[in-house]
Amino acid sequence: MRLDFDGSDPLDRERFPVDEWRLVEAFPSDDDLGLTETLFAIGNGYLGMRGNPPEGRPSATHGTFVNGFHETWDIHHAEQAYGFAHTGQTIVNVPDSKVMKLYVDDEPLLLSTADLMEYERSVDFRDGMLRRHLIWRTPSGKIVQVDTTCMISFTERHLAIMTIKVTMLGGSAPVVISSQVLNRQDGADEYQDREAMAKKEGWDPRKAGSFSSRVLEPQGHWHSDRRMILGYKCARSGMTLAVGADHTIETDNVVEELIDTQPDLGKKVYRVDATEGETITITKAVAYHSSRGVPARELFDRCRRTLDRVRRDGIARELDQQRDWVQKYWDNADVEVEGHPEVQQAVRWNLFQIAQASARADQLGVAAKGVSGSGYEGHYFWDTEIYVVPFLAYTFPTAAKNLLRFRVNLLDHARARARELAQRGALFPWRTINGLEASAYYAAGTAQYHIDADVAYAVARYTDATGDEDFLRRDGAEILVETARMWADLGFWRVDGGRTFHIHGVTGPDEYTTVVNNNLFTNVMARFNLERAAAAVREIREGDPTAYARLRSRLNLQDEEVQEWEECAAHMAVPFDEGLGIHPQDENFLDRELWDLSRTPADKRPLLLNYHPLVIYRFQVLKQADVVLALLLQGDRFSLDEKRRNFEYYDPITTGDSSLSAVVQSIIAAEVGHHKLAMHYFLSGLYVDLADLHGNTADGVHIASAGGVWNALVYGFAGMRDHGKGLTFDPRLPDTWPRLSFPLRVHGTRLRIVLEQDAITFTVVEGDPTTVSVRGESHVVGGDGPVRVELDGQGPRLTHLVPRQPAPVVRADGTVITAGVPTDPETLAQEAALQAVSAAQSSATVPPARQ
Ligand code: BGC
């Protein structure tokens, strides 16, 4: 289902002017606070802060998040069953240190009502700095310039630095700046009526739940004349946290300073007699430290150490390091789209979100919303492995490796979970923070066994991209073996003429069809997993006997197992319908009626918020790409013609209700030659958050889609594939784009790729020569300068349209697959009303019964 935006620039450019390196807001608005808090959120993968104004209001959702810092709770199933997830996990809104309230002549600065002579808010992708500049005419007629900055360090993961500069441009006045650290998780928010907010927002399973009792138990508070530290422990999970803030002031004016701390609030207040023309600068360095169990008082010391170091080395050094770090990030990751500055800005915003979500996750996961919001409770999903790791593997391998190490560290939990579900090997949780399955609705959660293959796929992607044998031998192989064991045990053999290996009772990526037999995506990804595990074990056995002996004894690995995996893979059931020439999403998928999305009004979308799951499950209708994703990840196992037929079959019945869909649809549309759709879906992914296309950006950035933007550019338009035999390119540059260029890091070599309409050029920027293949021809790059390969066009250009309505088609058995829609609730209501009227009329005309 295509979104009804016509592909033109969807942003209001008066308010958000085009700037290739910044997201800029030219004037504030209270109408979309939740959205802009997310768009202007900053983070480093460990610590994240939403773009709330330093004054603390106006605001929709305050948020400061520490990756993985969560509270647990008991999941109460109204009808319990064995093995259901029992530990709920929710990311905690940690104490807010962004607050720097300003009063001039005792009047508070409040954007909603302030008379602003100038205003600009921006986040700069070159230094990760959130800046705000404004000139305020106070009610008493004074003119005040206020400049604030906020930066979360990529080099010091625990550190944030904020500044506020206040200059009286017209008149002198008493100025008060109140810098705070405030526990908003438990403390009543001084300005918001939470119940009213909750009612207004309504029910949405994608939002985080709220707690009815206290989460952060105070563990002490301390202050000196410029520093304050508050400590907490989560009531249930036992996680501990400390936050410390250090202040300095520069001014020639007379200043009076106060400081105080209480269990839920720390305040450092400056009262300044501000004279005209003098600037007051306050710098606030903040450190957050968290732990799974270390007492909070130890975290106090860690905060002190971080803050002491900043004080010793100076803020300027931190800012320089930040700039260098970000520069390096872009050297390795920037994708340049020539001739379309608005697209360029959006591309960079998305790529910057991945840095903000993953850079310093340092062996924690990347949540669906990174550290920008509490949507999906702060849980980690397959989003990371399929949408984020490919990007990181080719641009920022250390971060990719850390994310895989995070999964290695969860293996013991995954083994235990497999046992709980009566399986061998390891089964990763569908969604989690602490390693335990947190998906209460198993049909669209735990049943997504494909998570195991997704993790294995990420291991393969990383090792192929980097050649990091050491990781493979030590850790990667353990993941591959344990997941392969799970598949070999989960499936079963069916003898029907030949022997096929079936996997039943699973859910694929598309959550609008659940618990099915032989989901195509699951089976082909499991096949890949089994093959990769077998190949890895054989390679290690031959190449490194010591590592092999270690692996064998650690995992009690038997030679026969490897053979078994190969057999399961070789005989994997892969549903195919001869009549339609497509791969059904699962064995019984085509038995269902098609959902005619062209007859479903926009106000009934997303379907998951408007129809009972049973209604949805009855139809052929997709939340997100499923077979089409398999066509990308296992692209070497399908012909171009098969890809086209499958794409055209699934496109009209794919709602794209999940933001994980559009970018994948764009890549396959580009490959098969539906270039207009490729662009349409690319833009639908590119602007998911910037234009709030799913209406829930307020809950946080859609990180998988942001990663998918890179995938759509590199796999989609540049036509790169990496199926384990080196990099191949079959480009599909859009007609209107003169040039697309990007760097890639492959086995330590840094390549630069420039794609134009008539050629693709490769240059080794750093490292050894490497080989790439373009449309079947190999080229060695390196040594003698750039290699330019002429291109005869940009692949097939299909002229027929893919209709929006699914066409009735005939099944292999001759029956017709019809298309329909569930009865509209309004029609049902009208019918019920009519029935009530006629019942009332008939009771009025029936004569009273005789006594
Ligand atoms: C999607 C999942 C995804 C999750 C978190 C859901 O809506 O269906 O595939 O993992 O969101 O992003």
From TrEMBL:
Organism whose genome encodes this protein: Knoellia locipacati
Any GO MF annotation of the entry: hydrolase activity, hydrolyzing O-glycosyl compounds
Limits of the Glycoside hydrolase family 65 N-terminal domain: 31-292
Hydrolase recorded as keyword: yes
Active-site residues, as the UniProt record annotates them: 511
Name of the protein this chain belongs to: Kojibiose phosphorylase
Alphabetized InterPro entries for the sequence: 6-hairpin_glycosidase_sf, 6hp_glycosidase-like_sf, Gal_mutarotase_sf_dom, GH65_N, Glyco_hydro_65_C, Glyco_hydro_65_M, Glyco_hydro_65_N, Malt_Pase/Glycosyl_Hdrlase
Pfam family, one: Glyco_hydro_65N
Domain of life: Bacteria
Coiled coil location: none
Family: Belongs to the glycosyl hydrolase 65 family.
Binding positions (substrate): 382-383, 623-624
SUPFAM superfamilies hit by this protein: Galactose mutarotase-like (SSF74650), Six-hairpin glycosidases (SSF48208)
Example GO BP: carbohydrate metabolic process
The Glycoside hydrolase family 65 central catalytic domain, residue ranges: 348-710
Domain Glycoside hydrolase family 65 C-terminal: 720-781
Keywords: Glycosidase, Hydrolase
